[in-house]
Design brief:
Order of helices and strands: HHHHHHHHHH
Number of helices: 10
Radius of gyration: 21 Å
Largest sheet: none
Distance between the termini: 38 Å
Helix content: 55-70%
Number of strands: 0
Strand content: under 5%
């Protein structure tokens, strides 16, 4: 109880604790980003085997907890001391303690980013339900961003619970009223669904995946329908700038698809942080 009182009454302490917590969660997010696509792939193979009437081969258990973390190159089991966010990477010189293979920079980057964003949300919202909800949304958007960058998939196992979580938080008006959240979820899905089919009718190609619809629905459920135009504007602008830069500065083929999930996540985070200012621009009398 004293700890809660201290965190509520001392913003600096709350932000500092949030930074550490965010880095710890970032370490777990690295596991999610790496394993969840593999878990999905294994499930798809099992389903295909069942449809063909084949027996599903036994495979080592794989989930977000089992087996323990190990080096993907030499299978060295990572100890607790080697798994401290950022500090272990620095102490190991960015290399596996066993095979000396370089540990990708993404791992400490995700930990630092998670810590920084978690602290930022704590500073923005203060101790309470809004900060806890902002953490959950932020961590989910981070996981979706990196999974989409790696695989161009946005897993239903994250996007669908995220929609319900947004509605649950807004039962009490944490970020917006419930009516706005429900409309936001419906509008978020339908907007991109319409864009998808219009693009397909005109070009005969698929411009985005169904996961993008669900992600924007989740953002709408958390932030309400009024912020959806801002989210889409930020997402489309960032995506266009990155696409132009890739074509101009690299040999990126214009026909190569670019995942849209990371830009939706960026738009969602910016709307979460500065939604009130954005609402004043679009709805001056709101």
């Amino acid at each position: 109880m004293e700890v809660i009182t201290a965190l509520r009454g001392t913003p600096e302490l709350f932000v500092g604790v949030s930074l550490i917590l965010g880095m710890l969660v970032g370490s777990f997010l690295n596991v999610v980003i790496w394993r969840l696509p593999k878990m999905m792939e294994r499930e798809w193979h099992a389903q295909c085997a069942e449809l063909r009437g084949e027996s599903v081969p036994n495979a080592p258990k794989l989930n977000l907890v089992v087996p323990g973390s190990a080096c993907p190159f030499c299978d060295h089991k990572i100890t607790a001391l080697e798994n401290i966010p950022l500090l272990s990477w620095i102490a190991l010189g960015g290399k596996c303690s066993s095979c000396k293979t370089r540990i990708p920079l993404r791992y400490p980057f995700v930990e630092i980013l998670s810590g920084a964003l978690t602290a930022l949300m704590a500073w923005r919202f203060g101790f309470g339900a809004a900060a806890f909800g902002a953490w959950l949304l932020t961590w989910s958007l981070m996981a979706l961003t990196f999974i989409d960058l790696d695989t161009q998939f946005l897993p239903d196992s994250i996007t669908l619970p995220l929609i319900w979580a947004g509605l649950a938080f807004n039962l009490f008006g944490t970020f917006t009223d419930l009516e706005s959240a429900v409309i936001g979820a419906m509008a978020g899905y339908l907007i991109l669904w319409v864009v998808y089919w219009l693009f397909k009718l005109v070009t005969g190609k698929e411009g985005m995946g169904f996961g993008d619809f669900k992600l924007l629905a989740a953002i709408g459920a958390w932030l309400g329908w009024k912020l959806l135009p801002s989210v889409l504007l930020i997402s489309a602008g960032a995506g266009a700038l990155v696409g132009i830069a890739l074509v101009a500065l690299t040999r990126h083929n214009r026909g190569t698809p670019i995942p849209f999930g990371p830009y939706l996540a960026l738009g969602g985070l910016m709307a979460l942080l500065w939604g009130e200012h954005l609402l004043r621009i679009y709805f001056p009398r709101a």
